[in-house]
Amino acid sequence: MEQRVPPAPILADSAYGNETRFREGISELELQYAVGVQENMTVWQPGEVPRPKERRKGRGRPPVRLHRDAEHQPVSVKELALSLPAHVWKIVTWREGTRKKLTSRFAAVRVRPAHRDQKRSDPYPEEWLLMEWPSGEAEPAKYWLSTLPPQTRLTALARLAKHRWIIERDYEELKQELGLGHYEGRGWRGFHHHATLCIAAYGFLVIERSRFSPSARPDRLELRAAKIPPHFQPRGSPDARRTA
Fold first, then answer.
1. DSSP 231
2. CB neighbour burial string for 61-71, b if at least 16 within 10 angstroms, e if fewer
């Protein structure tokens, strides 16, 4: 951000997204996220806000921590998804697949996370809860929390959440084609150098790959050969000057 590079939302699976401190850390960096969460993740129903315990009569400091009782409890994201009316679930197409367009049913509501908020004095800010319930399935399949703006459309939320497949594909190519997983050192600096060079090489290959259609034939790529400088002498040439 200091170099004015446009920040992109952080994407992660539920192994990271379920960690409250991880999501808080992203927000502290002033970044947005769309991260997977598990079905037992608890949130407050849309429109509900956790409230402090009522003050008792008499002396003493008023309670400041958020309070729960038998009639005021959060629910799991799965419970919330199952309670939604049918009309809120919309068909969304997020990208072209190898054989057909990838499509599923999604719904999104604004909620407040509830993980251990009884130890807080202020509720968590509202954010998006995105849910996927494929047609023909008995129950919802996936859930995400996202701090994208309230005016974000359902299609944009679904496409961003599903964008993580590109990260997985890139990671596999980095490991298999460019040796990202071949580092055998023990120091952070060495790993940083190794990973940086792998990512730079992968970025170059992606740029080169985007110059022609994936369906183009090898003999019709129309790639231009680089011009050889007029005074260029290849290494090992009998006319090359010897240096001491």
1. T
2. eeeeebeeeee
| 3-class DSSP assignment, residue 51 | strand
Whole-angstrom distance, CA of residue 46 vs CA of residue 112 = 8
Q: Helix, strand, or coil here: 12? A: strand
Q: How many CB atoms lie within 10 A of CB 102?
A: 14
Q: What is the pTM of this model?
A: 0.75
CA pair distance 151, 146, nearest whole angstrom? 12
Which residues are bridge partners to 107 per DSSP?
131
- pLDDT tens-digit map of 99-132: 888 899 999 999 999 988 877 878 889 999 999 9
The 8 Å CB, 24+ separation contacts for 46-52 are: 46/109, 46/110, 46/111, 48/72, 48/112, 49/112, 49/123, 50/74, 50/112, 50/114, 50/117, 50/118, 50/123, 52/121
